[in-house]
Amino acid sequence: MPSTVLVGAQWGDEGKGKICDLVAGDFDAVVRYSGGNNAGHTIVVNGKKYGLHQVPSGIMYSDHVSVIGNGCVVNPKVVLEEIDMFEADGITTKNLKISGNAHVIMPYHIDLDGAFEQKLGKKNIGTTKRGIGPCYQDKMARIGLRMQDMLDETLFRDKLETALARVNPELELIYNLPTYTVDQICDEYLPMAERLRPYITETSLLLNNMINEGKDLLFEGAQATLLDIDHGTYPYVTSSNCTAGGAITGSGVGMKNVDRVLGVMKAYITRVGSGPMPTELSYESEAGHTLTEEGYEYGVTTGRRRRCGWFDGPIANYASRVNGLTDIAMTKLDVLSAFDTIKVCVAYECNGERYDYFPMQQSVLFHAKPVYEELPGWKGEDITACRTFDELPENAKSYVEYLEKKVGVPISIVAVGPDRDQTIMRGW
Ligand code: GDP
Ligand code: IMO
Ligand code: MG
């Protein structure tokens, strides 16, 4: 199995965790390359459910290497909690490796995230308040602290002093919040650093050595295409490159090593947080309520109710373009069993103009009205036990084939339930 990037093709929560866990067996390492514990990836194996935030979804495979790459931001407390959770369940974390260049989420990042959101008021981004944006800001401003810095107390204290010289006035003068001392943070972080020391590694070297030995890597995207800092619905995005290109910079392997890009998309669409969403259905509408409750669309990280809508074709085409998708994994087809007919957005209309593609201008997207085509459903037929494409009802097969044609990329995996087994392989 060639090295593959698995990427969210919508606004996140597409089921990346499930698909990653499903296909990880074909690979030797699973690598997270962007984001931090804003991610919430669910895996369900034999009925047992895990919600992962930092640790890659390949962790269930004991002989696999699991990497948190340099493009990630890491909350040490959360990683340690996840390590403890897995070890308590008899799942080894001995092959977990954390890049020494990944940036560390500090307590003040979390404070600033919350305070800035509050200041934005109605214009808030709806962040997960995990400190992600401020941590990436410090990385770009070159005052961030990296995992490797935590392993050298003198260096850590020195760098922290520089960071606090900038952060403390912001906390105090702009937000009227308590400030931090170097000692206070060291007391909390240095003991965690000692526990994390065995995991902190030169992961780029490790991964390239694996490639040279003929091993295959799976890059596990977090967040998604429309939350990407460059390609997403800016400013309603996260602060990293979650698209497929991020796998290269976020892990330190060369482009020539990636041969396949698997986009994960739901058979409909969801979004958490603020920003435009052309096919959004209100929770009060019958279809919106059904998608939310049948799909159990509540966030793994914050518990927030996700906004739901019909499948958005222009977004799927856009995701195919900016990621270079070679395959699609379509999830949650089973949720659509609740409908007589199913709508698919094929274009937008705005100010009398038709857009067959995902428009660049924020103002167009905010006012875009979806143009729908309506397809017959397979209401009442339980498809969660189907394991081959031919077992699906005719209208479910037609729906998948219709979307495949619209996007122009093979749908090589179809998920019909949350469990690892509830999946139809179609040429993967
Ligand atoms: P991720 O962030 O992309 O990994 O996705 P999340 O884990 O945040 O959200 C996806 C949710 O859908 C989780 O609760 C999964 O267990 C669930 N899920 C994944 N695939 C399917 C599917 O095919 N059918 C159903 N009903 N649930 C699914
Ligand atoms: P997974 O990996 C869905 C959203 C937040 C907010 C915006 C910015 O589970 O798909 P941030 O805290 O990153 O600064 O928030 O991005 N967001 C996600 N939405 N799934 C995620 O991750 C998300 N991670 C961030 O809701 O709108
Ligand atoms: Mg999620």
Would you mind describing this structure in some detail?
- The protein has 428 residues and is of the alpha/beta class.
- Helix content is 32%, strand content 21%.
- The chain contains twelve helices and 21 strands.
- The strands form five sheets. A ten-stranded mixed sheet has the order 9-7-5-2-10-1-11-16-20-21, with helices on both faces. Strands 15, 17, 18 and 19 form a four-stranded mixed sheet that branches.
- β3 and β4 form a beta hairpin.
- The longest helix has 22 residues, at 153-174.
- The chain is globular, with a radius of gyration of 22 Å.
- The mean pLDDT is 97.
- Residues 12-13, 39-41, 300 line the site of magnesium ion.
Notable features of this structure?
428 residues, alpha/beta, 10-stranded mixed β-sheet, 4-stranded mixed β-sheet, 12 helices, 21 strands, 32% helix, binds guanosine-5'-diphosphate, binds 6-O-phosphoryl inosine monophosphate, binds magnesium ion
List the helices and strands and how they pair.
Elements: E1 4-8, H1 16-23, E2 29-32, E3 41-45, E4 48-52, E5 65-68, E6 73-74, H2 76-88, E7 96-99, E8 103-104, H3 107-120, H4 132-140, H5 153-174, H6 182-196, E9 200-201, H7 203-212, E10 217-220, H8 246-249, E11 260-266, E12 269-271, E13 280-281, H9 286-294, E14 307-309, E15 311-312, H10 313-323, E16 327-331, E17 341-350, E18 353-355, H11 362-367, E19 369-376, H12 394-407, E20 411-415, E21 423-425
The structure holds guanosine-5'-diphosphate, 6-O-phosphoryl inosine monophosphate (IMO) and magnesium ion (MG).
By secondary-structure content and strand pairing, the structural class works out as alpha/beta
- Please bin the fraction of helical residues: 25-40%
Q: Can you tell me the residue ranges where pLDDT is under 50 for at least 5 consecutive residues?
A: none
Unique ligands = guanosine-5'-diphosphate, 6-O-phosphoryl inosine monophosphate, magnesium ion
